[in-house]
Design a protein that fits this description.
Elements: E1 34-36, E2 40-42, E3 48-52, H1 59-71, E4 76-78, H2 96-109, E5 113-116, H3 123-129, E6 132-135, H4 143-151, E7 156-159, H5 166-178, E8 184-188, H6 206-213, E9 218-220, H7 222-226, H8 229-241, E10 246-252, E11 266-267, H9 268-287
Parallel strand pairs: 3-4, 3-10, 4-5, 5-6, 6-7, 7-8, 8-9, 9-10, 10-11
Antiparallel strand pairs: 1-2
Helix pairs in contact: 1-2, 1-9, 4-5, 8-9
This protein binds phosphoenolpyruvate and manganese (II) ion.
Manganese (II) ion binds near residues 224 and 261.
C-alpha cells in the first residue's frame, strides 16, 4: 500500500479524453472549416456538394463527368483510383493511371479532387494529387493508415466504418489530428443493421450527434448508404435538412454500364437539378435558427 486511495484527487492520474483534439470544447465552441484547393471549403456555413464516379474508368469519361460536376456548381470531384472491393476478382481501380486522370480533370475544370488512399505504400502518390484524401469505411480503423495521413498536410475525409460507433469514428479522426493534420472531415455513409431493403442504414442522427460532440465538419454519402438510385435524392435532402456540411454522391453518364456501384449512381443528366434541389434545402435549413 502506498497510502493513496483511488478517490484521492491529488493522486488521481487524469485519463486523457479519448478524442481530446476532435471534441467540441464547449456548446458554443467554433466549428472547424476545411479549406480546399484555394477557394473551396467544407464547414463554416456553406453546403459542399462532392460528385464524381465511384471508380475512375477512362480519361474522356472522367473529364466529361468533371465538366458536368463543375457546371452544376459542385465543390469537388470524387473518384477512386484505388478501389476497396469485396471480391478480389472485381475491378480494383486504375491505380497510378487513375491518379493521373484525376490530376488532368482538375487541370481542366479547376475542381479540387477527393480520392481514396487504401495502402500506406501509396501515401505519397495519392497525397501529391488529392486535395482531400479519402479513408474508406473498410479502413476507418486502419490505425497505421490514419497515422500516416496524420503526417501529411492534405485534408482527410474519414468515412464511418460499416459497423463502427460514433465514438470509434471520432477516435479514428483523433489519430489524424494527433499527427498534426487538423483538416479532417467526417462522413456518415450508412451502417449495417438487420434491414435488408437497402444496402446500409443511413444514420442521420449521427450528424447532429457528431456535431454536438466534435468541431469537425460532417458530410453524408447517401449513395453507399442506399445502394439504390431512387433513395439518393430523398436521403440527400434529409442530410441537408439535418444540418450536414455537405454530401458526396456518385454520378456517371451511363450508370448501367459503370464498372462499380452503378445501381446507386445518379445519371449525369440528372445531376444539375438534383444539386439545385439539395442546395435549396441546405439554404432553408440554415435560415432556421439552431435549436428551433
Ligand atoms: C466509395 O466512396 O466509393 C466507397 C468505397 O465508399 P465506402 O468506403 O463508404 O464504402
Ligand atoms: Mn462506390
Amino acid at each position: 500500500m502506498n497510502g493513496m486511495t483511488p478517490a484521492d484527487p491529488d493522486h488521481e492520474i487524469a485519463a486523457p479524453h479519448p478524442y481530446r483534439l476532435a471534441q467540441r470544447r464547449s456548446s458554443e465552441g467554433a466549428a472547424s472549416v476545411v479549406e480546399l484547393g484555394g477557394d473551396r471549403r467544407i464547414g463554416g456555413g456553406s453546403f459542399a456538394i462532392i460528385a464524381g464516379p465511384c471508380a475512375i474508368e477512362t480519361r474522356e469519361q472522367t473529364l466529361e463527368i468533371a465538366r458536368v460536376a463543375r457546371d452544376a456548381g459542385a465543390t469537388m470531384l470524387r473518384g477512386g483510383a484505388y478501389k476497396p472491393r469485396t471480391s478480389p476478382y472485381a475491378f480494383q481501380g486504375l491505380g497510378d493511371a487513375g491518379l493521373q486522370i484525376l490530376a488532368d480533370a482538375r487541370a481542366h475544370t479547376g475542381l479540387p479532387i477527393v480520392t481514396e488512399l487504401m495502402d500506406v505504400r501509396d501515401v505519397e502518390s495519392v497525397a501529391a494529387v488529392a486535395d482531400m484524401i479519402q479513408i474508406g469505411a473498410r479502413n476507418m480503423q486502419n490505425y497505421a493508415l490514419l497515422t500516416e495521413v496524420g503526417r501529411t498536410r492534405v485534408p482527410v475525409m474519414i468515412k464511418r466504418g460499416l459497423s463502427s460507433t460514433i465514438d470509434e469514428l471520432l477516435m479514428a479522426a483523433e489519430y489524424v489530428l494527433k499527427g498534426g493534420n487538423l483538416d479532417a472531415v467526417l462522413c456518415e455513409r450508412g451502417i449495417r443493421t438487420f434491414e435488408t431493403a437497402y444496402r446500409f442504414t443511413l444514420d442521420l442522427a449521427a450528424v447532429p450527434v457528431l456535431k454536438s460532440l466534435s468541431h469537425l465538419p460532417v458530410i453524408v454519402d447517401p449513395c453507399h448508404a442506399a445502394g439504390r438510385r431512387d433513395l439518393v435524392e430523398p436521403l440527400a435532402l434529409a442530410a441537408a435538412a439535418v444540418g450536414a456540411d455537405g454530401i458526396i454522391v456518385e454520378i456517371h453518364p451511363d450508370p448501367d454500364n459503370a464498372v462499380c456501384d452503378g445501381p446507386q449512381t445518379l445519371r449525369c443528366c440528372d445531376f444539375a437539378r438534383f444539386a439545385e434541389r439539395v442546395q435549396h434545402v441546405a439554404d432553408a435549413a440554415r435560415l432556421v435558427p439552431a435549436g428551433v
